[in-house]
Amino acid sequence: MRARHAWCMTLRSQNGTDVAIVGAGIVGASVAYWLKRLDPSVPVTLIERDRSFARASSALSASSIRQQFSHPLNIRMSQFGRAFLREMDIAVEEKGYLYLGAVAPLRVLNETQRAYGADVVLLDPEEITARFPWLSVAGVEQGSLGLSGEGWFDGPALHAEVLRRARTAGAQLAEGEAQGFEQGADGRVRAVLLADGSRIECGHAVNAAGPWARALAGAAGIALPVHARRRTVFVLSCPEKLPDCPLVIDPSGFWFRPEGRYFIAGTTPNPDLDDLPLEPNHAEFDEALWSRMAQRVPAFCALRVERAWAGYYEMNLFDANAIIGAHPSAPNLWFANGFSGHGMQQAPAAGRGIAELILRGRFETLDLAPLGFQRLLDGRPLAESMIIG
Ligand SMILES: Cc1cc2nc3c(=O)[nH]c(=O)nc-3n(C[C@H](O)[C@H](O)[C@H](O)COP(=O)(O)OP(=O)(O)OC[C@H]3O[C@@H](n4cnc5c(N)ncnc54)[C@H](O)[C@@H]3O)c2cc1C
Q1: How far is ligand 1, taken at its centre, from the CA of residue 371, in Å?
Q2: Which of 84, 196, 256, 257 could, after both became Cys, cross-link 247 (CB 3.0–4.6 A)?
Q3: Whose CA is nearest to atom 38 of ligand 1?
Q4: What is the Å distance from ligand 1's center to 126 Cα?
Q5: What pLDDT digit, counting tens, does each position of 250-293 carry?
């Protein structure tokens, strides 16, 4: 600790900081929050180009949280996220996720999930019908339902609260667009370079640029396989009520859940292209969603599209899991990217993990090492079968 501060003091100039975080979405805000919580004396600057967050994934998310993952680390990270939401006083509609599918894979997943403390239950088709009589079980062998710890919440409220707490603790928010880094011969980042020609000296830099993280990594000569993939979310009204409706994951790949008096729904577009304009693709509802939704829930025959929005998933095309840690070529440039559709719930654990690496040189709470860069360099994907594309 002492060595770190002494070293950083020599680097810091008037416009300098100890940790410069590029991107103040939920991930950057969480890193700043944990840094200040673990060491209130550490200077932290968040660099954000758009303080309205109009295009940030954190403002355009479905903001749901689940424990139904296949990899124990993803389960643990989301459990950490659930506890953090409680601490931040953000209410969660704990209606659960209902995965519909085949018996064998859901049984195996259920064993892992329960071994790691997830409150999930397997349901056969008759039990599904008894709980959710409005749902058709055609083609469904098994359901997996989260009984607690799963549901949805106000994502922008969480983001605002974490950012507020980080700033109250002293983190600075600087408006500007990071274009690259000044690096020493050893690869270490010395400063973040901004589009207006200014620079922010730092002892550490963090890439929390969400769907735009690849460009920033590229500026440091690092290939980050994180791509901005547009997802359209439809806001739908249905004349019939669906009592106790959870977030339903259909075997064909679409999802829906209640949102106040409406429902929201989405699916993976095909083809799934990079960097499409952030405008909803209205055709997706007619072409890819409506008939499948009406087959699963007959009352959805009468669905009406109220509106739609689009946001970017930050898809890690290597293995659809987060990339957390540094690349060996730039040991003080930290990555927290590529959450591939589960970044709202994982941001608390990721932020704490990055803060621990910076301040203490190791993970102390959750060992996030399996999510490090090394797996990409070794060509060893982290297997997670429960990705909602
Ligand atoms: C439709 C949709 C549904 C989702 N549903 C869920 C869900 O149910 N549950 C869940 O857990 N997750 C979900 N996600 C994923 C989750 O929203 C994201 O993983 C998370 O918000 C990513 O946060 P972030 O801070 O990394 O990125 P962002 O929120 O995008 O923030 C990145 C910030 O960096 C800034 N920035 C980028 N480049 C620069 C630069 N060069 N200089 C300065 N600033 C820069 C941007 O302006 C932006 O504000 C969903 C995402 C979408 C789009």
Answers
A1: 18
A2: 257
A3: 209
A4: 39
A5: 999 999 999 999 999 999 999 999 999 999 999 999 999 999 99
Nearest atom (ligand 1) to Cα of 345: 11
Q: What is the pLDDT of residues 176-217, one digit of tens each?
A: 999 999 999 999 999 999 999 999 999 999 999 999 999 999
> Ligand 1, from 198, 212, 232, 272: best to mutate by most atoms within 8 Å of Cβ?
212
Who wins on pLDDT, 12 or 23?
A: 23
The pLDDT tens digits of the residues spanning 156-180 come to 999 999 999 999 999 999 999 999 9
HEC letters along the chain = CHHHHHHHHHHCCCCCCCEEEECCCHHHHHHHHHHHHHCCCCCEEEEECCCCCCCCHHHCCCCEECCCCCCHHHHHHHHHHHHHHHHCCCCEECCCEEEEECHHHHHHHHHHHHHCCCCEEEECHHHHHHHCCCCCCCCCCEEEEECCCCEEECHHHHHHHHHHHHHHCCCEEEECCEEEEEECCCCCEEEEEECCCCEEECCEEEECCHHHHHHHHHHCCCCCCEEEEEEEEEEEECCCCCCCCCEEECCCCCEEEEECCEEEEECCCCCCCECCCCCCCCHHHHHHHHHHHHHHCHHHHHCEEEEEEEEEEEEECCCCCCEEEEECCEEEEEEEECCCCCHHHHHHHHHHHHHHHHHHCCCCCCCCHHHCCHHHHHCCCCCCCCCCC
Q: Does residue 32 line the site of ligand 1, with CB under 6 A?
A: no
* Residue 316 CA to ligand 1 centre (angstroms): 13
pTM (two decimals): 0.96
Report the pLDDT value the prediction gives residue 15, as an integer from 0 to 100.
Answer: 57
Give which of 182, 210, 252 is closest to 30, Cα–Cα: 210
Pocket of ligand 1 contains residue 93 by CB under 6 Å: no
